[in-house]
Amino acid sequence: MGRKHSSPIDRPLGLPLQDVYKIGGVRIFLVGRVDTGVIKSGMVVTFAPQALTTEVKSVEIHHGPLPEAVHGDNVGFNVYNVSVKDIGRGSICSDSKNNPANETKSFTAQVIIMNHSEQIAAGYTPEKVDRRSGKKVEGNLKFLKFGDAGIVELISSKPMCVEAYLLFKK
Known about the structure:
Pfam family, one: GTP-eEF1A_C
Strand order of the largest sheet: 1-2-8-5-4-9
Keywords: Cytoplasm, Elongation factor, GTP-binding, Nucleotide-binding, Protein biosynthesis
Organism: Steinernema carpocapsae
Distance between the termini: 24 Å
Shape: elongated
Number of strands: 12
Order of helices and strands: EEEEEEEEEEEEH
Helix content: under 10%
Structural class: mainly beta
CATH class of the largest domain: Mainly Beta
Radius of gyration: 20 Å
CATH superfamily of the largest domain: Translation factors
Strand content: 35-45%
CATH architecture of the largest domain: Beta Barrel
Subcellular location: Cytoplasm
CATH topology of the largest domain: Elongation Factor Tu (Ef-tu), domain 3
Protein name: Translation elongation factor EFTu-like domain-containing protein
Number of helices: 1
């Protein structure tokens, strides 16, 4: 019986790591769920936000080898020349040759302020939008407060990876 997947596998690989294990003192085993694309042995992958590129040794599911893993598969896989200190939970594994994931220092997002008693302000000018239509409704705001929706630039204090929704929407 073949596996059924709700997403096409021709999209770029996107595999967030759930865990990294060191087995037997030498073997590094990475675990995660394939969100998009395909991962298989011999594939060259890049981990973000570390910008670490390596080759996949093997892919496994339930302690058995797997020729390839696709959207929805929870898999374990081995890679060459990577230490548990190099990558960790939350890193994104992507295909080095097809839209590899990168570190993001800042990004623009539409947010709705929920369950927050303080006003949010920083070195940017918020742009208030209608929560239903997503259209700009006011300009030159100094802050956003509970219940407001806005387009904001977020700047991360630590390395992170953010994907464009239009490229990876399900």
